[in-house]
Design a protein that fits this description.
With about 300 residues, the protein is α+β, with helices and mostly antiparallel strands. The chain is built from 6 helices and 15 strands. The radius of gyration is 18 Å and the shape is globular. The chain starts with 15 loop residues before the first strand and ends in a 5-residue tail after the last strand.
Length: about 300
């Protein structure tokens, strides 16, 4: 893009998403705060049936899935009583298979079984990947010392695990320029791979995905350096900036025709708080992206 906040292309885009996790020296009390933006398929009708579903299954950790009634049995976002959070972002890649654990159910399985990052990784590694996606798993119990979150770049038969300050991420290149900018106590992704194995097979590498990765880095750094500690409100600000509203990320005073942010979430898992906004409207005239609507705080400790 030629200007901060402007998209480089005007043609329709595939579904985009992003996520981040911060903890330790970057946050108030050192606790984990993580996010998930869902940029995909606006005006589908799903938003008429916004839903948070709490699952209390005998012998399993209680957890909540956040989304829509049309995806009741799937987890496109969620948080468990044990403080595990799950997020996803698209990663276009042809190395896919039906012989594995479908990711929306797999994320539910992670929340049912995992109590920390080590057990989450073990549960993840026990099954095969189906599609190519970026995932984020956060763990409140691993904060403040961390690492309290891991990003996973996945495709058929391969998963790359990234923790904070990753040396592999630091060496990542796009068009002969280093684009990786890892930091301590933070993990984040847009729709771009940073592991060389995954990046070499990614079908499309958009300028926008790199810009959003860089913007996440800059906003995290801006809100958590110089002795500042990020609050949940700071993280709501960041996730609202990254939600795709139209041709400019930095304002809701614009035409939303090219926007597709249908759900925007901040997890504050040690407090069992989910802070959620959804899209509204079914026509071009009344549609508003989630990032431009009010964020609602749900205290899930009342139902876990």
């Amino acid at each position: 893009p030629t200007a901060r906040g402007a998209l480089p292309l005007s043609q329709p885009r595939p579904g985009f998403c992003d996520f981040l996790a911060v903890w330790g020296k970057r946050t108030e009390d050192g606790r984990l705060i993580s996010t998930r933006n869902l940029d995909w398929g606006k005006q589908s009708g799903l938003a008429k049936y916004k839903l948070i579903t709490v699952w209390n299954i005998e012998g399993k950790t209680p957890y909540a899935t956040i989304g829509f009634a049309g995806a009741l049995t799937a987890s496109i976002a969620g948080m468990s009583k044990a403080g595990i959070t799950v997020s996803e972002a698209n990663l276009d890649n042809a190395n896919v298979t039906f012989r594995g654990f479908p990711w929306p159910l797999r994320l539910r399985h992670i929340m049912e079984e995992a109590t920390d990052l080590a057990s989450a990784r073990k549960v993840w590694a026990s099954a095969n990947n189906t599609a190519a996606f970026n995932f984020l798993i956060g763990s409140a119990s691993d904060a403040p010392k961390g690492p309290a979150a891991m990003a996973m770049e996945t495709m058929k038969d391969f998963t790359a695990y990234f923790y904070d300050n990753s040396p592999i991420e630091k060496e990542a290149k796009w068009e002969n320029s280093v684009i990786g900018k890892p930091m301590p106590d933070a993990v984040w992704r847009s729709n771009h791979a940073l592991h060389p194995t995954v990046m070499s097979t990614q079908e499309n590498l958009w300028n926008d995905t790199i810009w959003r990765y860089m913007e996440l880095h800059n906003l995290i750094e801006e809100k958590s350096t110089g002795g500042k500690a990020m609050t949940a409100e700071d993280v709501v600000y960041i996730v609202s900036v990254l939600g795709i509203k139209g041709t400019n990320y930095l304002t809701c005073d614009q035409d939303f025709a090219e926007g597709d942010n249908i759900m925007s979430i901040v997890y504050d898992p040690s407090k069992h708080n989910a802070i959620v906004s959804w899209e509204d409207g079914m026509t071009d005239q009344d549609w508003r992206p989630a990032a431009c609507n009010k964020y609602i705080l749900f205290d899930l400790s009342r139902v876990f």
